[in-house]
């Protein structure tokens, strides 16, 4: 399907007022990655 095949006629146009209230990146969440660290505890008997 190409962009020419999509029917956009039922979508209302965006007004200048709507553009003025828009916020860039509002729903963006950066990808998270799991971090694993190994902790080695050494207890020396005194």
TrEMBL record:
Superkingdom to which the source organism belongs: Bacteria
Descriptive protein name: Uncharacterized protein
């Amino acid at each position: 399907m190409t962009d020419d095949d999509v029917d956009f006629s039922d979508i209302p146009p965006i007004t200048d007022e709507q553009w003025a209230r828009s916020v860039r990146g509002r729903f963006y969440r950066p990808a998270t990655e799991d971090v694993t660290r190994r902790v080695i505890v050494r207890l020396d008997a005194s």
